[in-house]
Amino acid sequence: MSTAIDEEDQTASLALALSVAEYFDLEQRQAQEIAGEVAAATAQWRAEAQRFGLTRAQCDRMESAFVHTDLETALSFA
User: Fold this and answer.
1) Which ranges in the chain belong to alpha helices (H)?
2) Which of 21, 29, 60, 71 to pair with 77, CA 20 to 30 A apart?
3) φ, ψ of residue 32 in degrees (nearest 5)
4) C-alpha to C-alpha distance for 34 and 37, rounded to whole angstroms
5) pLDDT tens-digit profile of 25-57?
């Protein structure tokens, strides 16, 4: 399942989200700041999951949803 970011491309990517920022009345810098804020919160996902009792194996299975190039890029905006 995915949510389309624009009308033609259903790719889930930070680059695509930033490319359509103006459509949502956001300047590029605003969109980057939001991405940075979300990335900073998301970067703590493993500690939060463990705090709620998830095992290391469960976290390892979810890792690819959180740790990827888009996270690294978004963190550079934080």
Assistant:
1) 14-19, 28-42, 45-51, 56-66, 69-75
2) 60
3) -65, -40
4) 5
5) 999 999 999 999 999 999 999 999 999 999 999
